[in-house]
Amino acid sequence: MTIKFAQSFDAERRRSLSIDLAIFSLIFAGFYGLLSLGRYWTSAAVPEVDISLSPWALPGYAFFSVARLFGAYFLSLIFAVVYGYVAATQPRVERVMIALLDILQSIPVLSFLPGVMLAMISLFPARQLGVELGSTLLIFTGQVWNMAFSFYTSMKSIPRELGEAGRVYHFSGWQRFIQLEMPSGVIGLLWNSMVSVAGGWFFLMACEMFPLGNRQFRLPGLGSYLQTAASAGDVRSIIWGITAMIVIIVATDQLLWRPLIAWSDKFKFEQVESNAHGGNPILRMLQRSRLAAAIGRVAGNALESIMLRIAKREAAQPADAREPSAWPARIAAAIVLGVVIFAALHAWEMLRGIAGHEWLSTLGHAGITLLRVNGTLLIASLWTIPAGVAIGFQPKLARIAQPLAQIAASVPATALFPIVLLGIIQLGGGLGIASILLMLLGTQWYILFNVIAGALAIPSELKEAGSVYHFNRTLRWRVIILPGIFPYLVTGLVTASGGAWNASIVAEYFHLKGQVFMTTGLGAQISQASDAGRFDILLLSTVVMSAMVVCINRLVWRPLYRLAESRYRLDA
Amino acid sequence: MQPQPLIEALAIEKFYEAPGENRIQVIAPLDLAIRPGQIVALLGPSGSGKSTLLRMLTGLSQPSAGKILRNGVETKDPGNLAIVFQSFALFPWLTVQENVEAPLEARGVNKIERAERSRRALDVVGLDGFEAAYPKELSGGMKQRVGFARALVVEPEVLFMDEPFSALDVLTAENLRNQVTELWADKKLPTQAIFIVTHNIEEAVLLADRIIVLGRNPGRIRTDFEVELAQPRDRKSPPFVGYVDYIYRVLTQPDADPGRLPSASPKRELHQMLPHVRPGGIAGLLELLPDPGQHADLYRLADDLGLELDEILPVVEAAALLGFLTVKEGDVEMTALGYRFANADILHQKVFFREAAVQHVILIDRIRRALETKSDHRVPDEFFHDFLDEHFSEDETKRQLETAILWGRYSELFDYDAAQKRFFLTEPDPPAAHA
User: Among A388, A416, A420, B20, whose Cα sits 20 to 30 Å from the Cα of B221?
Assistant: First the structure.
């Protein structure tokens, strides 16, 4: 007995040692990666890097792309937490900040491109850092808004009594943040992080290689590799590139997101332990590792000493004196207001110079893209609703179909696009059809996954009632299925609609085989204006697109959402 | 003199400005004090602002008007308080120990001391051994124990509880409630007062030394009284039922004036102690008093009679109990009834005494009613022993019954058969023309 125990203990220790070694080498590799990144960033500026199409160059490119993507992601994370925190805790600016978030969310990534790039290049004119920062910030603008919104919502939905417990026991702002607000936000932030990073992959090509006015930018990375291969019509290289991308995406999913999701289980508000405790092998390994535990301890102690110091300082001053002065906030508000007015005046100046017929054509383009977006949603719904319900109603099918669909969904549509477009052109089609197909590739998954979730959530009693009373197919759909999946369908459609508007920019305008393919639409107009350096047209079309998206959200989706919340809730 | 209140609310109210001229009054101005050594229960229908009141007293929300004194000082700093929440309000991502330590961290207490204090608090609530568990691994009752430990660890001046047992099943709630009363009685709870919000009438009567009943539209105090029952309390005892009935009546008649506790009030029923005085002594004292409208100083009265104050006091108490005189700050004054009693002949004196005794003396009334309900009009004295034992020692019970027998014989309400140890009804003289 003791011997057996000792043996298993020994095996345990050896395993733990190998995990420690693995973690150690990971840290070392990360350090080396940072060093080479630093060297590259501080090198002289080379806006247009030559891209080698050899598969051997791919790991290097992949590294740069991943670094850019996660750099942007960490910026997003910090920004999202700060923005969400301020919006949730400062009632005076809350409404303005949330309205602003709504608008920013509706602005397509490429509309930020000229401003961000030019600002960064002029900040670091001589170093590659400028161009790199510009590209990273561009990815950032595609990732950050939903995360900020998520953190804000989490903070606002902290159960009232938990917040009161923090106040009654005199938590400092810092302790409240560490023990209450941040933990409440973890799950929402995590799911939105996955969406955001996927969005980063979607726009990677657009963010790594683009013309700006008369200048051409091309950064070393997977996106540039794919675009270069597409321009050359090199299908073999495109497939290599896509393969590399899928490998990275799957690895991120397995090595990062899944362990994080398993870990985040402890941040659920549910008071009862759920039985769906899969656990995650990587998380278990980390939890067993002594090195990871040591790192965790050091970090925990650091956090705690900060917390105690703040607590002591706050306890030292009387509570009545804790009200902060309003002046810094007022001054900040005045500065922000000044900047906004200044920018608005300049924007107005710019818009005034646009000819009347250009206004008209912009509105026309907007109408066409609106049709295209809604056509996409319609086509997507037509196949995803029956498919999703079928998958959701048959657990066996779900077990096979769901992982497949997840892999399919994880491939960024933009990466597939060159191949799809080449095929369509060969069949004699044009970008008009292809753009719808691309938008479809990018957005149908949101609807599919939500429909599956909805179908799974329909209580089996309802289905049984349907069969006991011999409902025919029409009645079943009308009375059970459609109302049952309605809230989920609305959620899916809202996300898909936003995604489709954003995707229209890359879908309606494309560089392939050395020529530009474009179709009529607002997205194409934005891309073209950005390429040509027509900032006035860029501004106009951005404002129009943003206004349309916000209006559609307010007038269509929000009422539907409310209907779903009130009338079609199954748990009420 | 009563000790200084830990928290004293003066004319606090809560309202929300509504568009137009009307404002929404949630709580009408009210006064309330929480004194050391008391368990105060706040009862009320939903919508009467119980939670709002609790949140104002704890400083979680500010009253729209009025002020709150804490230890006699007006301040916005709520000070050292704790709340046990209905939903437990534990941090799901912290272990039991971390949850209990969180309030200490907020005070900058170092790790070692935190561990020690949280261990002690968990020990008190019977949760030692669960330090490393997460709340979701615990049952509801255990979660609320963590909630108690987290509240006790700060040694609050006042421990607030917001419907602490209503999320638990009946048996768990009962168990936890009993333990709280026990710990409180044993002075093991490191707090000076407890303020509990509940919608459960029995819970309030079980726990509280004082009960405040709120009414709604707007929230206001309907009645505020002390529960004078010894712990542990028996839900089936008549006085307990009396309290529950009274509160029930107040709650179900929202528009009626709740009045004071009714004449068969539990307060008198419980602590009414018959002074050991012969009825003749009462009559004698009254004859010495000045006419109604004039005061007599008790000290001087005792002096005039050549008696110690201690000797005269029981007689005064007995006369006051019967409604023959009133006592106010050391002065006695005869009532109109007392005047008539004192100046009546012996037969009429008996009638006055009889009526007063039935009306005001619970024990006499109880004995008479018990005798009347029995067909043979006989009741063994054990029957009343049981009733008195709840409130008095054995000796005192005996003396109470002896006094009751004296008074009953004098007023010809009933008699006592010492051999058979039982009471029996006597036919009083026909109601004389005393009016």
Answer: B20
| CA-based nearest residue in chain B for residue A184 | B93
Assign B264 a pLDDT band (cuts: 50, 70, 90): very low
Portion 146-175 of B in contact with A at CB < 8 A: 150, 154, 162
pLDDT digits (tens, 9 = 90+) for A21-30: 887 888 888 8
Residues A288 and A259 in one domain: no
Work out the average pLDDT over B150-179: 89
User: Which residues lie below 8 Å from residue A172, measured CB to CB, with a gap of 6+?
Assistant: A307, A310, A311, A314, B106
Regarding whether A233 and A115 lie in a shared domain, the answer is yes
Please give, rounded to a whole number of angstroms, the shortest distance from the CA of A315 to a CA of chain B: 7
Pick the CATH number of B7-268 from 3.40.50.300, 3.40.630.30, 3.40.50.720, 3.40.50.2300: 3.40.50.300
- pLDDT-based confidence at B362, cuts 50/70/90? confident
**Domain limits of chain B?**
7-268, 279-342, 357-425
Could you report the predicted ipTM of this complex, rounded to two decimals? 0.73
Contact B210, B38 (CB under 8 A): yes
A274-278, A378-382, B364-368, B416-420: which range is least confident on average?
A: A274-278
A172-201 residues touching B, CB cutoff 8 A: 172, 175, 179-180, 183
Cα dihedral sign, A328-A331-A335-A336: positive
Residue of A nearest to B137 (CA): A273
On whether any CB of chain B is under 8 Å from the CB of A300, the answer is no
Say if the Cβ atoms of A271 and B93 lie within 8 Å. Answer: no
Q: What is the pLDDT of residue A392?
A: 85
- Please tell me whether residue B253 adopts helix, strand or coil conformation: coil
Which CATH number does the domain housing residue A254 bear?
A: 1.10.3720.10
Amino acid at B54: L
Q: Is B88 on the interface with A (CB under 8 A)?
A: yes
Whether A140 and A165 map to the same domain: the answer is yes
Range of the domain at A307: 280-316
A447 neighbors A489 (Cβ within 8 angstroms): yes
Q: Are A108 and A523 in contact (CB under 8 A)?
A: yes
Total structural domains within chain A: 3
Whether A445 contacts chain B with CB within 8 A: no
Read off the amino acid at residue A430: G
pLDDT tens digits, B229-239: 887 788 888 88
| Fold observed for domain B279-342 | Arc Repressor Mutant, subunit A (1.10.10)
Domain presence at residue A443? yes
Q: Is A154 on the interface with B (CB under 8 A)?
A: no
Indicate the average pLDDT of chain A: 83
Q: Read off the pLDDT band of B433 (50, 70, 90).
A: very low
Burial (CB count <10 Å: 0-12, 13-18, 19+), residue B244: middle
Question: Nearest-CA distance from B92 to chain A in Å?
Answer: 6
CA-based nearest residue in chain B for residue A315: B107
Q: How many CB pairs under 8 A join A and B?
A: 88
Distances (CA, A) of B228 to A227, A347, B322: 86, 77, 21
Mean pLDDT of A479-497: 87
Class of residue A515 by CB neighbours under 10 A (exposed 0-12, middle 13-18, buried 19+): exposed
Task: Give the one of B83, B86, B94 whose C-beta lies nearest to A179's C-beta.
Answer: B94
Nearest chain B CA: its distance from A37 CA (Å): 37
On whether any CB of chain A is under 8 Å from the CB of B115, the answer is no
Where residue A318 falls among pLDDT bands split at 50, 70, 90? low
Nearest CA in chain B to A162: B89
pLDDT of A557: 87
pLDDT of residue B183: 87
- Compute the nearest-CA separation of A321 from chain B (Å): 10
Its pTM stands at: 0.72
Contacts of A307 in chain B (CB under 8 A): 105
Q: How far apart are the first and last CA of chain A?
A: 55
